[in-house]
TrEMBL record:
It comes from Megasphaera stantonii. This is FprA family A-type flavoprotein. One of its GO terms (molecular function) is oxidoreductase activity, acting on NAD(P)H. SUPFAM superfamilies: Flavoproteins, Metallo-hydrolase/oxidoreductase. The lineage of its organism: Bacteria, Bacillati, Bacillota, Negativicutes, Veillonellales. It comes from the Bacteria.
Length: 411
């Protein structure tokens, strides 16, 4: 069996869906699965661009052998050493001992660290701008440091204007159709692409912007990422680059609010839900509520990236901020979350810690975020005569959302 498709003039997609891995990188739940893409170039010289996770090793080798049709493999390009793509590389390289390995110098070091199988006689070191001639196809290389490993290099086929973009423009989720223009991308893949970006690459916005600037200087007709669908039309390429500009520059895609809360006995949750309803009554559409103790932070961080405003509501627990909220905020901070307006509701019964910690994140630990006033530090539960405070918070958040500039294209 094989599962391949010709993308353009002898360039083939090889893809494998992974439905079995439950937690990607042992941290991100992927109920929707994930794909590992690899690419094959059939020319005077044969070339494989990246491998797959070892969970797809058999399928990967089978597809390569099908496309080789008994020919030898000349080149294997390793765009970065992360094992979700490289852990089946050794199997390929042992099966094809004649194949040269093309990568940056640091990738070879990491290759040896991970696999303890040095193959120095086979290394072909490349730097930015170097060329690899395969026949009609000529590849050049574009450095993409920290997108999202230090030694990432993208490959660009000058002949057919195909960019092999490594993890950039990738996404969680399995694929049936190969191309973004064959699916309802916004409906079925956008959330997965954003969650993948924010949690895997989100910390490195400035580096992503630099790569996007380089990409703007070259004609691109196809983008081939290592996860998810391939982009081959001007519309889908423009769409995903525009999304990347928002995400990498920490610019919200939408006016609106995410209410991230955690609650021990339901009183903070009640305040969050009452606030959500009041925001709705004030005309705010699409108010999103997430219990961060229940929903994995990777989903909520991605939603926080999407919207202009954030509300945090959480209680004190063991004289600290309740851990699920602390984890969520720590995650946001690590990912360099910035440029948002944020309201805060704390809760405590005898000693207040949650409120101050959340305010500290907003004012001191996040970059360029603004605390919306008024704030509230509840005592166990809200009395009926305190509802006015929630009204004031709702009005402040709603007014600020309404005054927020309309999102515009960053292209
Ligand atoms: Fe999909 Fe950086 O690996």
């Amino acid at each position: 069996m094989h599962c391949v498709e010709e993308i353009k003039n002898g360039i083939y997609w090889m893809g494998c869906n992974d439905f079995r891995t439950e937690i990607f990188e042992r941290i991100f739940p992927i109920p929707e699965g994930v794909t590992y893409n690899s690419y094959f170039i059939d020319d005077e010289m044969t070339c494989v661009v990246d491998a797959m996770d070892k969970s797809c090793r058999d399928e990967f080798i089978e597809d390569v052998e099908y496309l080789l049709k008994g020919r030898k493999l000349d080149y294997f390009i390793l765009q970065h050493m992360e094992p979700d793509h490289a852990s089946s590389a050794v199997a390929l390289l042992e099966k094809h001992p004649e194949a040269k390995i093309v990568a940056q110098a640091q990738t070879f070091k990491l290759f040896e660290q991970f696999f303890r199988k040095p193959m120095p006689s086979r290394y072909v070191e490349v730097k930015e701008g170097d060329q690899l001639k395969l026949g009609k196809h000529v590849l050049t290389f574009v450095k993409a440091p920290m997108v999202h490993w230090p030694e990432v290099i993208m490959s660009y086929d000058i002949t057919d204007k195909v960019l092999f973009s490594a993890d950039a423009f990738g996404m969680f989720g399995t694929v049936g159709n190969v191309y973004a223009d064959q699916v309802d991308f916004e409906e079925n893949y956008l959330d997965s692409a954003r969650r993948y970006y924010v949690n895997i690459v989100g910390k490195f916005g400035p580096q992503v912007v630099k790569v996007l600037q380089k990409a703007a200087g070259i004609p691109i007709e196809v983008i081939c990422p290592l996860h998810g669908v391939v982009f081959r039309t001007p519309e889908t390429i423009q769409y995903i680059i525009e999304k990347y500009l928002h995400w990498a520059k920490y610019v919200p895609e939408k006016k609106g609010v995410v209410i991230a809360f955690s609650s021990i006995y339901g009183n903070t949750e009640r305040a969050a839900c009452v606030l959500a309803h009041k925001l709705s009554m004030l005309g705010i559409r699409d108010v999103r509520l997430y219990d961060v103790a229940k929903i994995h932070p990777s989903y909520v961080t991605a939603k926080a990236w999407e919207y202009s405003h954030l509300v945090l509501a959480a209680p004190t627990y063991n004289l600290n901020l309740f851990l699920p909220m602390e984890n969520f905020l720590h995650d946001l901070k690590t990912l360099m979350f910035q440029n948002r307006k944020i309201a805060v509701i704390g809760n405590h019964s005898w000693a207040s810690a949650a409120y101050n910690t959340m305010v500290d994140y907003v004012q001191n630990r996040f970059k360029n975020c603004e605390l919306l006033e008024p704030t509230l530090d509840m005592k166990s539960s809200l009395r009926d005569d305190q509802e006015g405070i929630i009204d004031e918070i709702a009005k402040a958040v709603a007014d600020d959302i309404k005054a927020y500039p309309e999102p515009k294209s960053l292209l």
